[in-house]
Amino acid sequence: MRKKIGFLSFGHWRNASGSQTRSAADALLQTIELAQAAEELGVDGAFVRVHHFERQLASPFPLLSAMAARTSRIEVGTGVIDMRYENPLYMAEEAAATDLISGGRLQLGVSRGSPETVLRGAEVFGYVPAEGETAADAARRKTEIFLAAIDGTAVARTDPARTGISGGLAIQPQSPGLRERIWWGAGTRATAQWAAGIGVNLQSSTLLSEDTGVPFDRLQAEQIELYRQAWKEHGHDREPRVSVSRSVLPITEDIDRLYFGDQAHEDQVGLLEGVRSRFGRTYAGEPDRIAGELAADEAVRAADTVLFTVPNQLGVAYNARILETIVRDIAPAIGWTRA
Question: Which helix (H) or strand (E) holds 323?
């Protein structure tokens, strides 16, 4: 499988000094423009993060459809959609429509989501978990309903009074092949194995909510290996895809050094929702040094897709220059070749 690269944007916007995305419109429209620029550079994927109740991208399907309509080759996707907030059947309609608009380029990452500043946000949206059901349980339950819906499973019945028959009805439209382009964002080794069990691709998170004392890339590589072993054990008949994301900030001009010269170069370990967690490091520096470091990164070597997070508030031109540097000077060192 050819190694692919993409960008991942959190879509931050704020009316602050130095920000090129001062409004939600700026963040949305510039994400579309960056997808176009990335496609021209030969980048394989344009992915967006989804957050609710934040000044970040929140409603992915209109955005992904616009990105798809303005491009012709690049994959468009999410990393990730928090399933706790979703109606899985309506989401199945939106996902299929977006995939059809894209010509089968949608790569949809879903998960339980990340820690939030909002209190019981999904409940505000009207989704109250069942008694005894955890947030993770709710996300997985909705994901399984969503997967059944895009598989064409009958989820409703015809009205005999209107149709004269009694039969099953599937969500429409359907988009063939979409089921194989769903990913689960896993923050632990166990959730990666669960994803393998249900037959979806793996997006390994930039933070793992467990820590065994080994470097982040090694822990993540172990997660990937366990996922692939579980995939084989379940006997799925296709090769799965695995992505990792990295914060990569090449310094080639003085302005880059001003922005990123003091970035940390080590993993971070801390408590997240009471669980000891390990966060991946930032790769900032000269492109040749970053290339060497990423080439030695065990998880980057193990994955077939690497997503590079972009500082979207610095604008399209700045981020396109970062991606151009990655394409020219960094990605070839990890085994990437332009399609």
Answer: helix 316-325
